[in-house]
C-alpha cells in the first residue's frame, strides 16, 4: 500500500477494520448484487449530530468557516476542511475550539502562497503535505511544509482522489471528464478514465462532475451533479453505470438533487451527500432506491438538520462527518451499531 493517507480511499481501511466483523460480513453474490446482505448488519447513526468544527456563524475567524466543501478525518480524529470561501485549508484538532490554517489563508489570489476557492484535497500526513484542487486558479497545487509546488496547471479541477497505487485522479466539472496521472509525472495531459464525451446524460457523459472516489479495483465513482446521479466507471470502461439516482431531480428515495460528496465502503455501500435535499443517502449498486441515513428533516440549523451538505468522511469508529455547507459547520453523527 502506498504510504499516502488517501482522502477518499481511506474509508476502505476504516470500515473494514473497525466496523465489519466476521459475523457481519455481507454475503456478496452475483445474483443479489455487491452489497446484498443476510440482514445481520444494518449500520445506523444517531440522528442528532455533534458540531465538531465551525458553528459560530459565517466568517474568517479561526473558530469559523465559510462555505465548506471536501473534508477528511485522520486516525487521531483531527478534521481537515476545504474552507472554500475563506480560500484556505484548515485543520481542527480533536476537541479543539478553533482550527489552524495549513494552506492558504493569505487572501484570495494566484500567488503561490494563496488559494482561490479550494474544493477538494488529499492529505499525506507522513510527509506533512497536502494536494489541493485550487478551483478558481485552475491548478492542482501541493503544499509541503508551507512550501508550494504546482503539480498541474491550466486544469478544470473540481474533485480529487488517489488510488492505492498512487495514481492521482482529477474531475473537471466544465470539461465533463475525469483524468488520471501517475504520481510525480504531471508534465502531460493525463489519461481520460471517465467522460470526455461532451455535456449530456448518456452513460458515457457527465453534466458537471464534482466529487470522486476510487475503489481498490480502480473503479471510479463520480458525482454527476447536474444529472442528479452517481456514476461508476470500471477500469478501462468506455461508459459508466448509474449506481445512485438517475431518475431526475427530486426528493423520492430513488432520486437525488445536486449530489455532493461520495464514499464507497468495503461492502460496496455508496454514501452520497444529497445536497439540495439536505440529507445523506446510502445506496447499493443495482438497487432501485436508496436509504435515508441522516438529515432529511428540511433545511435548517437544528442538530437533526442539514443545509446543503457537501463533503463526507468517516473516522476509525465508523462515525459519519458531514460538511454542512450553508450552516458553516462540520457535523459528527455517531454510529449506533
Automatic annotation (TrEMBL):
SUPFAM superfamilies: NHL repeat (SSF101898). Pfam families: NHL. GO terms for cellular component: extracellular region. InterPro entries: 6-blade_b-propeller_TolB-like, NHL_repeat. NHL repeats lie at residues 205-236, 249-280, 299-336. It comes from the Eukaryota. Residues 1-23 form the signal peptide. Keywords: Glycoprotein, Repeat, Signal. PANTHER family: PEPTIDYL-GLYCINE ALPHA-AMIDATING MONOOXYGENASE (PTHR10680), SMP-30_GLUCONOLACTONASE_LRE-LIKE REGION DOMAIN-CONTAINING PROTEIN (PTHR10680:SF28). This is Uncharacterized protein.
Amino acid at each position: 500500500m502506498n504510504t499516502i493517507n488517501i482522502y477518499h480511499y481511506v474509508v476502505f481501511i476504516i470500515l473494514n477494520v473497525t466496523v465489519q466483523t466476521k459475523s457481519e460480513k455481507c454475503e456478496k453474490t452475483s445474483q443479489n448484487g455487491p452489497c446484498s446482505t443476510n440482514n445481520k448488519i444494518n449500520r445506523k447513526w444517531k440522528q442528532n449530530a455533534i458540531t465538531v468544527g465551525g458553528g459560530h456563524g459565517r466568517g474568517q475567524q479561526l473558530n469559523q468557516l465559510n462555505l465548506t466543501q471536501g473534508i477528511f478525518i485522520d486516525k487521531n480524529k483531527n478534521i481537515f476542511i476545504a474552507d472554500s470561501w475563506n480560500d484556505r485549508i484548515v485543520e481542527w484538532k480533536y476537541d479543539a475550539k478553533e482550527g489552524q490554517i495549513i494552506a492558504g489563508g493569505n487572501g484570495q489570489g494566484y500567488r503561490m502562497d494563496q488559494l482561490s476557492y479550494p474544493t477538494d484535497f488529499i492529505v499525506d500526513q507522513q510527509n506533512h503535505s497536502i494536494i489541493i484542487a485550487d478551483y478558481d486558479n485552475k491548478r492542482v497545487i501541493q503544499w509541503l511544509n508551507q512550501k508550494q509546488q504546482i503539480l498541474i496547471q491550466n486544469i478544470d479541477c473540481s474533485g480529487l482522489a488517489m488510488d492505492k497505487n498512487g495514481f492521482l485522479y482529477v474531475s473537471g466539472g466544465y470539461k465533463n471528464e475525469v483524468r488520471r496521472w501517475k504520481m510525480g509525472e504531471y508534465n502531460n495531459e493525463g489519461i481520460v478514465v471517465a467522460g470526455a464525451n461532451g455535456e449530456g446524460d448518456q452513460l458515457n457523459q457527465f453534466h458537471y462532475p464534482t466529487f470522486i472516489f476510487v475503489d481498490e479495483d480502480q473503479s471510479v465513482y463520480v458525482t454527476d451533479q447536474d444529472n442528479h446521479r452517481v456514476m461508476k466507471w470500471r477500469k478501462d470502461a468506455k461508459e459508466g453505470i448509474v449506481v445512485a439516482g438517475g431518475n431526475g431531480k427530486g426528493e423520492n428515495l430513488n432520486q437525488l438533487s445536486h449530489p455532493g460528496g461520495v464514499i464507497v465502503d468495503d461492502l460496496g455501500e455508496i454514501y452520497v451527500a444529497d445536497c439540495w435535499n439536505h440529507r445523506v443517502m446510502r445506496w447499493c449498486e443495482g438497487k432501485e432506491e436508496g436509504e435515508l441515513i441522516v438529515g432529511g428533516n428540511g433545511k435548517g440549523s437544528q442538530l437533526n438538520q442539514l443545509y446543503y451538505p457537501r463533503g463526507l468522511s468517516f473516522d476509525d469508529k465508523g462515525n459519519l462527518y458531514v460538511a454542512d455547507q450553508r450552516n458553516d459547520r462540520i457535523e459528527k453523527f455517531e454510529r449506533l451499531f
